[in-house]
Design brief:
single chain, 424 residues, alpha/beta, Enolase-like, domain 1, TIM Barrel, 2 domains, 8-stranded mixed barrel, 3-stranded antiparallel β-sheet, 18% strand, globular, binds 2-phosphoglycolic acid, binds zinc ion
Amino acid sequence: MTRLVDTIEDLKAEQRYDSRGVPTVQITVITKGGAVGISLAPSGASRGTREVSELRDGGVGFSGLAVKKIAKNFAVKFLPKIKGVSIFDQDLLDQILTEPDETAKTWGGNFAIATSQAIAKAAALSLHLPLWQYLRQVFHQHSGLAWLPNHKINLCANVLNGGVHALGGPTFQEFWVVSSQGTMAQQLETIAEFYFALRENFKKNKKLTLVGDEGGLVPLRQTGEETLSYLHKMLREKGLLNKLALGLDLAASEFYTKNCYLVDGKKYSREQYIAYILKLQKSYNLAYLEDPAAEDDLKTWLALSEQLAHKVWLIGDDLFTSQGARLKEGIEADLANAILLKPNQVGSVTGLMKTAALAKKNNYKTIVSHRSGETTDTFIADLAVAINADAVKFGPPCRGERLIKYERLLSIEQELNESTKVEF
Ligand code: PGA
Ligand code: ZN
């Protein structure tokens, strides 16, 4: 690839709002050559304790969650550090971004990640490349891994919501259907039709068709087991058991205290809980289990891994928080076999890529994921294609901030079909 010379000229940070109406930051990076990269930070509600923290204003407005004051500070402080640096030096820029500074520990999972993503977008535009193609090159430089054009990405759609994303629903946070057959467009159609049928069924049974933060319908006053049984029955009736697998994000850290798990009003000791999860897996043929144990309850992780790792994707989200060091410990202890990748958990594009490379080199499955507080930024769709992720978790086909990411994936798929000749 011919490298053009282009450097950072300007930086803007402004307050915007996420899909929950909570303030978030929008970063604009402008290069000397006139390329403009814009990115917005998402925000989680069931966060792992090891995620890089977000910087917010504090005070009374928005319960302290505004970012207006920090935004002003950020541009003034940070621009002098990066002005004149090559827009293509993502690694160096990410290092500067994630270095602790004199006023804050780091610029956090909101300012740092939005800037890192905006830099990558501006770099891609400067080279007249689609973002995924630019990111693919950055990933290759970091990992040495060859990019596979026919690599399959499974779509994981959390069609029913509970936990902290849907109060009044079951304790488990997400009930997934996962597609793996056909093109991404075909997979999305299968999922959308199933989601449509679920909504119709809710209406027929006079249930409220409320949706949770990520767009999944909320089965009010139902236990997790009742919800799984309902989903399984619906899949059987629609003849989809061969096409869509079932999965869960339990987000177990949210209902774990003092060696016990409190699920749908019932308290389980560690041993009882492990037996319960194994029973659910078997009864409903669960193929994906994200955070089935709390992030610090490694004993339960290990017990589940011994029993299930050969047949189920055991996915660490809060367990790893996209951090390489944490993943390394998990690999050494055989705790899981898959990792959820959320850029704002680690704070930079290359930080995330380093974790993704470590995962791939250890045969871990990689799943690029949205957050419950999302924006219309589609960066993660390009990222998933660029790193040959094994799956994406962008929510069900409901709510614009989720759909726009699927739309981006389908556009990339079309682009890939139309041009097999991609230059490095
Ligand atoms: P969060 O949840 O974005 O609210 O943290 C998503 C998840 O747990 O996967
Ligand atoms: Zn999760």
